[in-house]
Amino acid sequence: MTAIASMDRRSFLVSAAAGGLSLGFGIPAGTAQVAGAVREINAWVVVHPDDRVVIRIARSEMGQGTLTGLAQLVAEELECDWSKVSTEFPTPGQNVARNRVWRNFSTGGSRGIRESHEYVRQGGAAARTMLVAAAAKRWNVPAGECTAANSVIRHAPSGRTLAYGAVAAEAAQLEAPAAVVLKDIKDWKIAGKGVKRLDTAEKLNGSLVYGLDLRLPNMLTATIRQCPVAGGKLKSFAGAKVAGMPGVRKVVAVDGNAVAVVADSYWQAHKAIEALPVDWDLGPGAKTSSATIDAMLKEGLTAENAFVGTRIGDAKTALAGAAKTVEAVYSYPYQNHAPMEPMNATALYTADRCEVWAPTQNGESALAAAAEAAELPVAKCDVHKMMLGGGFGRRGRSDYVRQAVLIAKQVPGVPVKLVWSREEDMMHCAFHPVTQCKLTGGFDAAGNLTGLHMRISGQSILASLAPQNMQNGMDPVVFQGLNAGGTEGQFGYDIPNLLVDHAMRNPHVLAGFWRGVNLNHNAIYVECFMDELARAAGIDPLEFRRRYLKPKHRAVLEAAAAGAGYGKAAPGVHHGLAQIMGFGSYVAACAEVSVTGGKLKIHRIVAATDPGVVVNPAQVERQVSGSFVYGLSAALHGECTVKDGVIEQTNFDTYPVLRMDEMPKVETILVPSGGFWGGVGEPTIGVAAPAVLNAIFAATGKRIRSLPVSKHDLRTV
């Protein structure tokens, strides 16, 4: 085999810089700055001498537009020229070194803007205050006589002006203000507007570097095979059988359940690992199938013990005394994240330093995983965040980062890029949890809905991924959209007797946070069953919901219904409704479908959303449309099945996604009511499936209670 070239850290950094790779940025506050250099005003804002402004964004960008939205909020308070704004990612290592000045690096749960809007705005306002103060000091006038707009500071009495770049050096030396006053939303000029995304041009011209695109000097590439059954172990492998194949540098065991081949190129590593003889200890999970999982969940539907998420009144007594009861059982399958960019990370390990380049949704988690795998202090490690070619919650886990470091440790001094094959990516996802739900509703003699019991049986995400967040053994995430109180996941209906409980049943297949999380199936369960209750009561589904919905829920539903012309569809076209509240926002949809000869056509979906405050209207519309692509893919086609403990769907030929000709027209109605900040990337996924399923019933009289739709015969009898 060819000898592996060694390179010390200094040589690597020099060659990387020469090759156009920029490591790090700006100059930390308090460090002397050379005259004419780029000026860091504070952690959020860097001003160049030519007035270009760099805004630092800690959250990850994976197509959802957080990069642009957060930059808008900073720029709004900074009062800078938007045409001169660009962005960059700080690293989690720098965040630790600076006492977590950028706070949370995690991007998930539609939290990018809704959880960080206040402090990023404060960062922009503080930088503006410092720039104004620097200009006032130079002019020897009170700062109160100066104003800032479009990156120019003006002294009103004298008419003098200075551009930001001209005073950045002085501003950088000033002490940050102890407190700032944020602008009233009604006065926004950049935020709240549909400005163009900051990353579009680079995507179009191909210059944007994703994790998979990264090239470093002398870099090697690795690929991996993991035990096909979750929980299984690696017994042995015959590395000598492939050691002489072209380009192969090393064959290594990884973490007790995987083996990797390191080679000069991905294709060489891939061909070698395909040929590598491996013996696995599959473990007890190998006895599991979709049928055994289904039986496990069915048992939970009637089990005596369950965790109670919501209890209002006495639902069981109300149902026992009801004049009429309605019962239904729904189910939701495993779903794969299936991002276009498979898992990958690049690591450079030496005895005293570990650097990682990774497309990650959680930079701090990735840093912790890298440090643990490297067996080095966090201060001697860092993670350089790359653009993500899709995340959807999958890249919140850092298993692939850990693997990259463990492999790089066995090839010290050389950067190694780990790339999962598509098959590995599909088989070793942390899947959308599988659940079933038994719903029972009861009416009194006057036809009023007096009781509802929802029994969910299925997996807990937190039990395996974040057990520290469990609450006395209960997983609160299970009840997304079903909690009766609070501001997140608030149950929309006023029902006097309500019980929502969960029988936890955890198969060996790993469950994870999948875009929309538990809200996706909970919305199906609630909204399709509400449709069933309406039909049982002989009441139009919209009117039935109006009777019980809380005001904000009703407002978005009525907006969607009105926008779609509910009840006025063309002959052969039928409407279906759904609403839910999750991730801090109220959302609703009205789907318009036809079914001809058993073939479904979704013509249009009108969606209404109330996120409280809208930072970029155009971005919200794109997010809503994108969420329907994802939600309808799951509803129409998505299903992962298990045979002998192994996920059967290994590529897009067996796990199809929505095709362009299947995508309906999407119309978005924004109804922000103000006073709160909700998410927009995930909540509307929840209403995609139930709106369509209810419309299918209206068209065919067939009630679909399990997904995907593609496995059902939609022909009318």
Main attributes of the structure:
single chain, 717 residues, alpha+beta, Aldehyde Oxidoreductase, domain 4, 3 domains, globular, disordered N terminus
Give the structure's gist in a few sentences:
This protein has 717 residues and is an alpha+beta fold.
Helices and strands in order:
Elements: H1 9-18, E1 39-42, E2 45-47, E3 53-56, H2 66-78, E4 85-88, H3 92-97, H4 117-139, E5 146-149, E6 152-155, E7 160-163, H5 164-172, H6 200-205, E8 220-226, E9 233-237, E10 248-254, E11 258-263, H7 266-275, E12 278-281, H8 290-301, E13 307-312, H9 315-320, E14 324-332, E15 344-350, E16 353-358, H10 363-374, E17 381-385, H11 399-409, E18 416-419, H12 422-427, E19 435-443, E20 449-458, H13 462-465, E21 497-504, H14 519-537, H15 541-548, H16 551-564, E22 574-582, E23 585-596, E24 599-610, H17 617-636, E25 642-643, E26 646-647, E27 665-670, H18 685-700
Parallel strand pairs: 3-4, 8-18, 16-17, 20-21, 24-27
Antiparallel strand pairs: 1-2, 2-3, 5-6, 6-7, 8-11, 9-12, 10-11, 13-21, 14-19, 15-16, 15-18, 19-20, 22-23, 23-24, 25-26
Descriptive report:
29% of the residues lie in helices and 23% in strands. The chain contains 18 helices and 27 strands. A seven-stranded mixed beta sheet has the order 10-11-8-18-15-16-17. A five-stranded mixed beta sheet has the order 13-21-20-19-14. A four-stranded mixed beta sheet has the order 1-2-3-4. A hairpin with a 5-residue loop joins strand 2 and strand 3 (53-56). The longest helix is centred in the N-terminal third of the chain and has 23 residues, at 117-139. The radius of gyration is 28 Å and the shape is globular.
